[in-house]
Design goal:
about 200 residues; mainly alpha; Four Helix Bundle (Hemerythrin (Met), subunit A); about 5% strand
Length: about 200
């Protein structure tokens, strides 16, 4: 699947809006639920998602090397609201003219990347994080087939070197993909998730 610069911005918007939708289903009693991110509650996962949004928004503005933008917020008493503010900021940054031609500094990934590729990383991350949230809450994931196909195309290009996967890195070690897996399952397993442990209908 070929994804253009214009497409990747729109695909990312769809994934981010789905993460907003599923997070919006969380009740006050849900924030301490476990998630597919080992050791992270839903509140902690939302803090991570919030920091990533602010970090990528800063990278789109040329400020990605400033560690302040990548720090998780300390006040997470209202996780959905804090995350919504960050999601709005990153979508506005990605909607700017020429954003896919800029270079993004992404410290977690070790270097700069062309904007189109960097937004692709953000996109696949939010397909997976939307699934993480849906899995934690036990709700359906609503992403169209073309979005899932595009996410798989990006996931297949993520380096699988074990030295760059695992704790402290952006992605967990890749898992084997059973024959006949659909695009969502393959994407999740390529990025280290175990979908069989967290059944979600997509």
């Amino acid at each position: 699947m070929t994804v253009t610069g214009t497409d990747i911005v729109e695909l990312d918007r769809i994934a981010v809006y789905e993460s907003l939708r599923v997070l919006g289903l969380a009740k006050e009693t849900d924030w301490e639920r476990d998630t597919p991110c080992a050791g992270w509650t839903l509140r902690r996962l939302t803090a991570h998602m919030t920091a990533q949004h602010h970090g990528f928004a800063a990278a789109a503005r040329g400020a990605g090397l400033d560690p302040e933008y990548w720090r998780e917020p300390e006040d997470m008493r209202e996780p959905a609201r804090v995350h919504r503010v960050a999601a709005t900021a990153v979508l506005a940054s990605f909607a700017g003219p020429g954003v896919t031609e800029r270079e993004f500094a992404l410290p977690e990934l070790g270097r700069g990347f062309p904007g189109r590729r960097a937004i692709g990383f953000h996109f696949v991350d939010y397909v997976v994080h939307a699934w993480d949230v849906a899995a934690a809450l036990g709700v359906d994931l609503e992403l169209p087939d073309d979005v899932l196909g595009a996410a798989l195309a990006v996931a297949r290009r993520v380096p699988v070197d074990p030295a760059g996967r695992g704790p402290g890195f952006a992605f967990a070690p890749a898992l084997a993909v059973p024959e006949g897996s659909g695009p969502l399952e393959e994407t999740l397993r390529l990025l280290g998730r175990e979908p069989e442990r967290w059944p979600v209908r997509a």
